[in-house]
Each structure stands twice: as C-alpha cells, then as structure tokens.
From TrEMBL:
Transmembrane segments: none annotated. Residues 179-274 are annotated as: Disordered. InterPro entries: Stress/Tellurium_Resist, TerD. Residues 217-246 have a biased composition (Low complexity). This is TerD domain-containing protein. Residues 202-216 have a biased composition (Acidic residues). Residues 65-153 form the TerD domain. It holds the Pfam family TerD.
Amino acid sequence: MRTFAMGEKTRLDESAIRVEFDVSGEGLAAYCFSLGTADLDVVCTARPASLTSAVALVAGGTGIAEFHVDLSAVDDAVDRLVFAIGAREPGFGAGSHLRLLGADGEIGRFVLPVGESTRERALILAEVYRRDGWRFGAVGQGYEAGLDQLVRDLGAEPDQALFTAAVMADPVVPDAAAHVEPAPEPAGGSEAEPARVSEAEPAVDPEPAPEPEVGSEAEPAPAASADVVPEPPLQAEQLPEPQAAPDPDPDPDPADAAPLSPRPAPAVEYEGRGDRVLSIERPVDAGPFLIELEARGTENFVVWTLDADLETDKLLANTIGTHRSRALVDERGTRTSRLKIEADGAWTVRLLTPEAARPLTDRLEGTGPETVRWAGPRTVVAMTHAGGSNFIVGTFTEHGGDEAYLGTLANVIGDYEGESILPKGPCLIEIEADGAWTLATIPD
C-alpha cells in the first residue's frame, strides 16, 4: 500500500477514480470544489452531484465520505478539483486519512498531519488537477478561520447557506446522489461539448487502466555531466553545454536545457538508472548540505532521504518526467547517509556544500523548488509565486541542529504575493514551489 507524504503527487492513468474520507472531529462536512469556471462549483451533502465537475458524493458527507469522479467527463473549463473538510470545532483526530482508489482498488492514502492541525477548522486534504493529463496531489493545508478562509483562498466568496446546509444535512445514502442533480442518459459514442459535458453522469463504472511500469534496476556510472530538460526551467545564467553521459536511451535535446545556477564543482556525484538505495558520502562533516537532482525518465521520479533505521525521512523530489532541483538536507540535525530513489530512467545526484546555493542580494527569481542563501541583516522580504500547488518558504541556520529552524516566511497554495521578515544572515532559505517565484529584499 502506498502512503502519500504531504505535497507528494502522482499521475492518474485512470479516468474513473474514487476519493474516500475517514476523518474524525466535531461537526464535520466534506466538500469537493471545482476551479476554473466563473463560479466556484461545490459538491457536498446539500448538493451531492455536479455535471460541471463530474463529481458525485455517493455515500456519507461528514467525516466519512465517498466521492466518485469521472475525469473524462469533467467540464473543459475545470482545471482543478479540491477535496476539503470543514469542522465546527478546531482540530482533527489522530489517524484521519484520505484514500485514492481506482478500478483495481486502493492506489494510495494520505494520513493527515493532525498533530500540526490542532487549531484549524478546515483542511484541504487533496487535489486533482490537469497537467499533461490528470494528477493527484496530497495537500494537508489547514485554515484556522475555517471554510470562509479556505474558499477565499480558492478565489471565491463563501456561501454560508450552502456550508450550513452541508453541516446540518443527513449523510448521503448510497445511490441517492444520482437523484439530486440528474444527468441525461449517456449517448453512446457522442463527444462532449467544449464547455459543458452532459453525456456522462457524475459517477461511472471505472475502466481498468494499466499501471505504469516500475523503473529497472539502477546501474551506477562514472560521474559525468548530464543533459536535462528541467520541468519547468529555473531562471539562471546559461552554462556551456555539458557533454552527454553515455546512455542507450534517447535523452531530451541538450539545446533546451537550462541549469539551475552557475554550478560549482560537486563534492560528490553519482549516476544511475531505475530504483536504487544509494549510499552517499556527505560533503560536510556536520550540518546541512545541498543535493542536486536530475531525472531523465518519463514517469515518476521520487527521492527520499533515509534515517538510520532505513525509514523514509524527507521527501526531496516527487515529479513526473524530466526534472532538476536542489534540496536542503540535514537542516534539522540529522545525518543522511542513504537516499531511496524511484525512477524509470537515468538520474544524477550531486552533493554540494551550502556555499553552492545561489545568493539572495536584492532580488532573486526562479521556478520550482530551490534553496538559496542570505548573508545580510534582518530585513523585509517581498515574495511572489505563480503556481497551482504549495508555496512554502522556510529559513534555517547554516550550522543545522535541533535549533536550526528560524521560521516560515510563507505557507500557501496557489498564486501568492506578500511580505515577511527575513532573519539576519547567514542563513539558508528553502523554497518549495511548483511555479515561478521571486524574492526581493525591501530596504529601510
């Protein structure tokens, strides 16, 4: 059974999926919001089905709920489905989780970080969104102000009457949802209209789809630079074109590759292919360091650090297709010596000292996850993000350890523009993003 970490994503190869809630708390109501149309569309106990989102609440609707989704019938304008839960009282019970299911049963589950959600009265549990097809992402974003704040973050105005009705309504009895907002009988072989899909009911019998094959066993190769098309590229100075590493499979065109930043010589470099548990040599005796990752496959690329008991510790990458990023490791006093890599193609791992991070002076921009360095005084920093998923900015001391965490500057989902206080340097700034971002210091 697969367990998703917060922020982890996966490609969906099936059009018919089920999303099940099992959440404990006081006065709970389950919701699915669809984004992309002029009005925020919602499915809940007060409105158990929607043609726009092709979502049906077929059972439950409180802390226990089952949504059926036909991704092939989602309105063309809808680009994101957000699965959320609201509560009358703050806090959610231990063991609360969400399950993602397909035709062959459970694809995976996401156990909510309820230990960190004692004051929240609403949570975004997960999202299903378009990007080269449909993908699933485990979110875990909490809102102390409840559903009002959550819905405003989605770009809409809260409908208090609907929310109240959802909390007060009786749970949906299986098969009852189909009678709330009936759809026309399916027309065999007909195609959907561009702006409205009316040929399919919200929930259909799932069609089995083949699961992606797991990558082959990794074979380490001598260290060498590799040509990569990042997804998406970070804005940085172009380096001379590197020489291709020997690889029997065709790799992306090197003319399209763009490096993260001027690359210092790595302390250690590894190359391999497919799934592997990789033993690494730390580039520093103590404290944090950077791991630069490159992937040249077409399916999932997932990298975890492993602790001394070989348990997964920190998720460094979880993407699909070609990838390049820099992650901060051992910022909280751990001593990583192994990585767990899941890949279907060739990959490269480079270990770098903290000094290799791009420096923030007055302004810095990039795309996707990265770690940068600040060496100035305590000041105000302005931040922007243009993306559809998590944007988290955390700060850490360079020496690491139990007291290394300095604070979080931003923790939102989607587009963002705001300011916070950047602590006195030197420190490391870890950025988690799925789109373009900027950091700019504001002088006194």
